[in-house]
């Protein structure tokens, strides 16, 4: 028996059910027939794919790799079936977009929803606010169509298009007194010993901050690592510390008590924001429509900020 969609679906079901008998019931198959399909896959790949025990079945290392690829293959088959059987003149379908947490582009969520609803009402948009490594992995495996992430260098499995460059700011609790500040900028040396709330060390922005601090022999006192914009905002409002991030975070504060915001200088810290798409998976018509809307919003929204006199990131290719 050769590898086909049926055998791949049976294998995926067995892995997810963790039991051949349970998987056979879900597939409406006799268990010996399911076992034969698994055996045919193991014969084809010349690898043991499942380990059987009294507790059920678990994938081997080779089985885990096949499971990952099979999920992707089956998801594309399902998408093809939906698009071919439901083909009309209206652009429709599901599109998943990732936006990097803390980035200025995280403000695009609502405008993108509005633009897609207005121009492509048949598109169901899924937006994920997350961190770059998570989003790029989802794009690479086909679970997400596109993402805007912090990245400048090449990444395996995806193509990166630099969109804009963001400068980082000190964002401190309301009423914080800062040394040697002209009211707009502050030297990086001023954060030496300051209580700081920063992203974790795996975050691209944290790596930029740590590198510059090490170069300048500055040692901020990191009291917490926070990977939630809402939690970080509340912690700053409570006076628990300051952070170094794009100025977009300051715009999320509520009430009359505004945070103290100063652009980091001497040296400045800049981060590249890039559009991330797969380098090996084709993009659907509806995903391309959303991508076009996203490009337009990146250009338009930040031009409005500049016109209004707000310090905006520099936009590439605008």
UniProtKB/TrEMBL annotation:
Pfam families: HTH_1 (PF00126), LysR_substrate (PF03466)
Keyword flag Acetylation: no
Record flagged with keyword Transcription regulation: yes
HTH lysR-type domain ranges (all copies): 3-60
Keywords of the record: Activator, DNA-binding, Transcription, Transcription regulation
Family of this protein: Belongs to the LysR transcriptional regulatory family.
PANTHER family: NITROGEN ASSIMILATION REGULATORY PROTEIN NAC, TRANSCRIPTIONAL REGULATORY PROTEIN NAC-RELATED
Protein name: LysR substrate-binding domain-containing protein
Organism: Polaromonas jejuensis
């Amino acid at each position: 028996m050769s590898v086909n969609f049926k055998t791949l679906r049976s294998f995926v079901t067995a892995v997810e059910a963790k039991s051949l008998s349970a998987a056979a019931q879900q597939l409406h198959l006799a268990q010996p027939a399911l076992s034969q399909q698994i055996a045919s896959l193991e014969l084809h790949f010349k690898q043991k794919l499942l380990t059987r025990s009294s507790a059920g079945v678990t994938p081997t290392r080779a089985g885990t790799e096949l499971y990952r690829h099979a999920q992707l293959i089956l998801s594309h088959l399902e998408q093809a079936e939906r698009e071919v059987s439901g083909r009309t003149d209206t652009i429709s379908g599901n599109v998943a977009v990732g936006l990097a947490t803390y980035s200025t582009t995280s403000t695009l969520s609502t405008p993108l929803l509005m633009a897609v609803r207005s121009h492509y009402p048949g598109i169901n948009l899924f937006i994920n606010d997350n961190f770059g490594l998570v989003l790029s992995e989802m794009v690479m495996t086909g679970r997400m169509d596109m993402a805007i992430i912090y990245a400048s260098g090449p990444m395996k499995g995806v193509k990166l298009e630099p969109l804009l460059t963001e400068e980082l700011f000190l964002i401190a609790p309301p009423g914080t007194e800062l040394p040697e500040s002209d009211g707009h900028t502050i030297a990086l040396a001023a954060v030496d010993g300051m209580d700081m709330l920063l992203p974790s060390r795996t975050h691209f922005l944290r790596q930029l901050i740590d590198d510059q601090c090490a170069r300048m022999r500055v040692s901020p006192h990191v009291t917490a690592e926070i990977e939630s914009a809402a939690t970080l905002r509340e912690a700053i409002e409570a006076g628990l510390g300051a952070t170094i991030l794009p100025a977009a975070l300051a715009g999320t504060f509520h009430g009359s008590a505004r945070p103290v915001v100063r652009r980091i200088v001497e040296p400045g810290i800049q981060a590249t924001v890039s559009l991330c798409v797969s380098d090996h998976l084709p993009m659907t018509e509806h995903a391309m429509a959303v991508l076009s809307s996203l490009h337009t919003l990146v250009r338009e929204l930040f031009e409005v900020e500049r016109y209004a006199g707000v310090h905006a990131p520099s936009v590439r290719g605008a």
